[in-house]
C-alpha cells in the first residue's frame, strides 16, 4: 500500500499512554520501544516516508509496524511466536532480569554478573546471558563521556563543519593538532611472527628510548598532511609549525586552520605571528570536542598502522618510521569524507543531553 492510500491511525488515550510508557521506560526492550515510537509518529498523521526519515529507520520497517498495529493494536507490536521447544522461562523472569540489570545493583557491587543475577532470579547463568543479548544489555561494559561546557558550542560546531562541507573559495583548510609524547619502545624479547593458527606475539615489557612530539596539518580537501617532529609542543613550536604550513602552501590562497583550545594555540607569540600573516585564520573546536577535528582520524590511522605494533630501538628509529609511514600515506592520500551537517550534530547532542537529564539518570 502506497503512502497516499494509508488508512488513518488513531490512538485511544489508553493506547497513547501505554505506547509513551514503552517508548520512554528504560526497562523496555529497545525493539519494542522503537516500535512504540513508530506508532506514535504514525498517529501524528505522517506517512511512512516522513516517519522513517524522522526516526532514522527504513520505510519498510515503518510500514510493517503500522500494519501490525492496525491489525492487532498493542498486541500486534509483540514478537510473533516462533516454532521450537516450549519456553521454560516465564515472562516475569525475563522482566525481572531486565529490570534488575537496568535499575538495580547487587549488594556490595556496582553491576550484575550473570551468575549473581541467575541466583537471584532462579534461572541458569546461560539464560541470563541470552536475555542480556536479546535486549542488548552489556553490564560488564562501561564507556566515558564528556558533554562540552563551551558557551560557544553551537557557533563553533557550525563554523568547523561549514569548513568541511562548504570550504571557502581560493582557500585551503587544514585540520591541525599535535600528538605529544610518542614513545620509542623496544620490546625486551624479539617479536614472534604470526604463523597459521597463532597471532603475532610480543613481550609484555619494553625499554623506553625517549619521546617525540608530532605536529600534523591534514589538508581536508586532498588528505595529504604537512608534519613536523619536535622535542616539545610549546607555543613557539606551534608558531614554527605554522611557518612550515606557510612555506608549503600556495601564497595566493587563504589558509584556514582548525585546532583545539590548547593554551599554546592562543599564546601571544602565536597572536603576533597571525597579525603578520593575515592570510591565516584559526578556527577553534568546542572544548572537549576533539572528535570534530579530522586530523584525529588521521592520528588514529597512524597509531593503528605504524605505532601500535612498532618496535623502535632508538629515537632515530621512531623518527624514521614516522617519516616513512607519512610518505607512504601522502603517496596514496585520499580525503576523509565528512557527512554530518551541523544541524544533525547539534540535534544529536540535544537528544543525548535530554536522555541524561531524564529522571533516574
Overall form: globular
Task: Tell me the series of helices and strands, N- to C-terminal.
Answer: HHHHHHHHEEEHEHEHHH
For the largest beta sheet, what order do the strands appear in spatially? 3-2-1-4-5
CATH H level, superfamily name of the largest domain: Ribonuclease H-like superfamily/Ribonuclease H
Percent helix, as a range, is 40-55%
Low-confidence stretches: none
What is the makeup of the main sheet?
5 strands, mixed
As for the number of domains, it is 3
- From the structure provided, what is the oligomeric state, counting identical versus distinct chains? single chain
Hey, roughly how much beta strand do the residues contain?
5-15%
The overall strand count is 5
* Mean of all residue-level pLDDT scores: 84
List keywords for this structure.
361 residues; alpha/beta; Nucleotidyltransferase, domain 5; 3 domains; 13 helices; 13% strand
Amino acid at each position: 500500500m502506497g503512502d497516499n492510500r494509508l488508512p488513518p491511525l488513531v490512538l485511544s488515550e489508553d493506547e497513547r499512554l501505554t505506547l509513551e510508557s514503552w517508548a520512554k521506560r528504560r526497562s523496555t526492550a529497545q525493539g519494542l520501544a522503537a516500535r512504540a515510537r513508530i506508532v506514535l509518529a504514525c498517529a501524528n498523521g505522517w506517512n511512512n516516508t516522513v516517519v522513517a526519515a524522522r526516526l532514522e529507520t527504513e520505510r519498510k520497517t515503518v510500514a510493517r509496524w503500522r500494519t501490525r498495529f492496525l491489525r492487532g493494536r498493542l498486541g500486534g507490536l509483540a514478537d510473533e511466536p516462533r516454532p521450537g521447544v516450549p519456553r521454560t522461562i516465564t515472562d516475569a523472569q525475563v522482566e525481572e532480569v531486565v529490570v534488575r540489570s537496568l535499575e538495580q545493583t547487587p549488594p556490595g557491587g556496582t553491576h550484575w554478573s550473570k551468575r549473581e543475577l541467575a541466583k537471584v532470579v532462579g534461572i541458569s547463568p546461560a539464560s541470563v546471558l541470552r536475555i542480556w543479548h536479546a535486549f542488548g544489555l552489556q553490564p560488564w561494559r562501561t564507556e566515558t563521556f564528556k558533554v562540552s561546557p563551551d558557551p560557544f558550542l553551537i557557533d563553533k560546531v557550525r563554523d568547523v563543519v561549514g569548513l568541511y562541507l562548504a570550504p571557502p573559495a581560493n582557500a585551503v583548510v587544514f585540520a591541525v593538532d599535535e600528538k605529544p609524547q610518542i614513545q620509542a619502545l623496544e620490546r625486551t624479547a624479539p617479536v614472534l611472527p604470526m604463523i597459521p593458527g597463532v597471532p603475532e606475539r610480543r613481550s609484555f615489557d619494553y625499554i623506553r628510548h625517549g619521546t617525540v612530539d608530532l605536529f600534523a596539518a591534514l589538508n581536508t580537501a586532498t588528505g595529504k598532511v604537512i608534519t613536523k617532529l619536535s622535542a616539545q609542543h610549546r607555543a613557539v613550536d606551534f608558531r614554527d609549525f605554522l611557518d612550515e604550513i606557510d612555506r608549503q602552501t600556495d601564497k595566493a590562497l587563504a589558509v584556514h586552520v582548525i585546532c583545539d583550545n590548547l593554551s599554546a594555540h592562543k599564546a601571544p607569540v602565536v597572536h603576533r605571528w597571525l597579525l603578520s600573516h593575515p592570510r591565516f585564520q584559526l578556527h577553534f573546536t568546542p572544548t572537549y570536542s576533539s572528535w570534530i577535528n579530522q586530523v584525529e582520524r588521521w592520528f588514529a590511522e597512524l597509531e593503528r598502522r605504524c605505532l601500535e605494533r612498532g618496535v623502535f630501538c632508538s629515537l632515530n628509529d621512531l623518527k624514521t618510521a614516522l617519516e616513512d609511514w607519512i610518505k607512504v600515506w601522502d603517496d596514496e592520500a585520499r580525503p576523509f569524507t565528512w557527512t554530518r551537517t551541523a544541524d544533525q550534530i547539534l540535534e544529536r547532542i540535544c537528544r543525548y543531553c535530554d536522555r541524561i537529564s531524564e529522571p533516574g539518570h
